[in-house]
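@channel sequence for tomorrow's demo:
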Amino acid sequence: MSGLVLKLSPKERVLINGAVIENGDRRSRISIVTPNAHILRLRDAIHPEGANTPVRRVCYIAQLVLSGDSDPDEAHHQLLRGIEQLSQILVDDDSRTHLTKATEAVLNRQHYLALKSLRSLLPREERLLASRPV
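structure tokens (generated this afternoon):
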């Protein structure tokens, strides 16, 4: 994760290598120069019980890699399989673009970018689930 720049809002929390860091009263910017540091914005975190939809489950796997709670090699295959499964359901052009970006990010071991691309699918998934017949 060398070269990652975090822009934090006041009082925003971030998990860095297992330690929760809370920003002060002002906006700040932190440059992470240590490669392979485990970093997760807590505002982006999905709790285990919240990983209850297809997109959320794949996001959760990426999140576990970022937090250091999952082996990246094991998660690599799970992420690619999950993205492939999502690509069979989300067939519109916009979703395909996000899934392609997520796949490329996983292949390049850029799990933060993968999570970012996958999270952009959450609103679409929510709308699809809300509109399905009961």
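heads up for whoever presents: The chain has a mean pLDDT of 92.
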